[in-house]
Amino acid sequence: MPQILVEGLAKTYRVAEREPGAWGAVTGLFHRRWRTIEALKGVGFSMERGELVGLIGPNGAGKSTTIKILSGILRPSAGRCEVDGLVPWLQRVQHVARIGVVFGQRTQLWWDLPVIEGFDLLAAIYRVPPAQYRATRDQMVGLMRLEKLLDQPVRQLSLGQRMRCEIAAAMLHDPSILFLDEPTIGLDAPSKLAVRDFVSTLNRERGVTVILTTHDMHDIEALARRVIVIGNGTILADSPYEALRAGVLAERRLCVDFAEDAPVIDIPGVEERARDGRALELAFDPAIIAAPTLIARITADHAVEDIHVDEPAIEEVITRFYQLHGAEEA
Amino acid sequence: MNALRPYLATFSARFQLMLQYRAAALAGFATQCWWGGIKVMIYAAFFGAAGAAAHAPISLSQTITYTWLAQGFLSLNPWTGDPDVAAKVRTGAVGYDRLRPVDAYGWWYVNAAAWMTARAAPRSAMMFALTGIIFPIVGLGAWAWAPPAGVAAALLFSLSMILVVLLSSAIVMLINICVAATLTDRGVNNLVAPVAILLTGNLIPLPLFPDWARTALFIQPFAGVVDIPFRIYFGQLTGTMALAGVGLQVFWILVLGGLGRLWLGRVMDRLQVQGG
Description:
Chain A has 330 residues and is an alpha/beta fold. Chain A has helices at 21-30, 63-70, 92-96, 115-125, 130-144, 159-171, 189-205, 217-223, 241-248, 291-301, 314-324; strands spanning 4-17, 33-47, 52-56, 78-83, 99-103, 177-181, 209-213, 226-231, 234-240, 252-258, 270-276, 279-284, 304-310.
């Protein structure tokens, strides 16, 4: 029995359209034209307890809408969804008591309250028994190294400090599922690492089920064993991370610095990607020509100063994947 | 007790937070003194005009006490929605509110109650200290906030003031829901404020309106925020009429609270969370 079950989830919005200009504003008072936007068109997947799944897709793909429906904030237009046997939007109060949610672009703590008072207030709102609250809080404070931040008002924290507090805050009532919507957005490298480390620990040691959306592919690389790619409101792929990478990303790169101006290389299965004076970047398919063979052929014909094999950046892979499926942002 | 824990904790946190704004409290108090002074002088001139005082349903000293009470408890008037709700709706943070395992209406309601009482507490205390204690001492007794008509009036006034908070919060909730439905607080605040100022009796005490309008003004919900408790205070509303006044407050709390609860449920079903 999966912990999260989603079938044929659809969400449409109605947006009022207006003719441009002042006259449009006036006619809009009497007659509105409505345009329907399909944010989700039949999304379906399931997740087992303790899984950590990365949800990726371009802006406007429907990631956040999916998270908002799963967490009980939005009511879908059609489809089925059960989380731990509860329908989020029908049994909202029961459901939200069991989940933790972090939106990277918002704060759930109180701007003017010190962090610790925000934690206390959340514990009261979730009716966490005092002894259990103290234990969980101390554990989170230790894991996220928040000791020095607890007395500071939230508005004085840096984004990285705040995000660590936000995730700790989402865990105070000991939820079994954690929804993280772009938790690393805008963070510096050490803060990103701290957040990834924390999420990974929660998943591994506490068995928390995690759904993570992000635009940072390093988050996915570091955390998610399974990736769901969403675009244009539908699921484009749902596979292990390695499979996704291998499928779209068989290609390798060969970067060569020649002793003279870079020559034109004409070998089957090899394409020129970039050239800059004596430097040349080639793309090749290892299934057609193996790296050692290619290197041997180039060094046999030309004087080479430096050479190395590279993999395309994950961002590039994903962009190609979106293009392949026509899922670029509309 | 555990069932009420989220609401009590929220009330106390918001109350303490609002109390921090001391500069706002002082500025508000100064403004309220200024307007109170102007109103008191206008009423003095009005009552001084030939024949007016003889026909007036309330006396000049009652009108003055009414005015200071109204100025002191101004923050309990439901003129606008809760600014926190407006900010949350504008930024989309309202989504987080949906993630709390609490009754949505009850939670915003205690927030509204805390927001209003925390502002009213210091302002009314300062107003009473100035116009109720210092004025008589310095010989301005004729212009002072007079003590209540008697023990019974004082007790019933206390009960009625608790109902003021409950009723006013229910009206603020209707404004909040309108803000959530329209995604802005500008329109509804501009619409409600003048209506509330007039119908509560804050601008002109309701007994000074023409005779033909008086019953209608007494039974409409805004009277329960200013007019009913204050007239109980100085003994102009006594016996059956006083009980009827308190009964009307309870009636409107139930009706407007029920209405808000139904409406909020519908608005939240249609909610579209901004951004992200």
